[in-house]
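Fold this sequence, please.
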Amino acid sequence: MEEHFFSIQPDQINTDHFSLSESESAHYTRSLRGNPGSIIWLLDGHGMAYEGQVTSTQNQVSGSILQSIPNYGESEYAIHLVIGLIKGSRMDMVMEKATELGVKSIHPILADRSVKNKLNMERAQRIIISAAKQAGRSLFPTIHEPIQLKDWLQSHEKDKKLLGHMTGTLSLANALGNEKNEVYVIIGPEGDFSTAEIEAMTHANVEVASLGPRRLRSESAAVAAIANLNQLMEG
């Protein structure tokens, strides 16, 4: 049986009862043509999922909570994506695929060669929630406001950081080492990071890893890096 996922705010859960928002109720009744009696899954975005049974579709979809499952659809480790801000639908794709692949947060960076310096945060949040529902994730990744690379490096001085770049001499596995808990993977913008930015990252103890012999677009590099890190950190 196909599972249908809906986002829900914690205050829409009352012990063993739930009610969907107006927009999610409309999706259930109009797009899915749902009826009372159906089983649906509710995702609160903070790491909790609920299995529910619809009892009413009058005005607002509501029903009973059958069970609650913490960390539904989530990994025990944390991958964070740090990416030079890119433009248009390519940034949309990055946020969507990174969410589907399980990242815990997304950090857009303003780099020397960035061709864009703003991000529509409301749109970004909608993309992330939609992708999380598609993937069945109970935790919706945090999307951060874009900041300068130097400021980001300063605020993450002690974190494990990897840069995916063609100049890397280490494999992704060697750059990751024995880290199995949390890592920040950094991907450049369309025009790549400048030489000065790469030097600044190496001075900030960022490991530079190769993602293969081919030059990848930013969105492709992000997907490749996250997918490979998932495999390496699951063991």
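Helices lie at 22-31, 88-100, 121-135, 149-155, 172-176, 195-203, 218-234. The chain has two domains: 5-70, 78-234.
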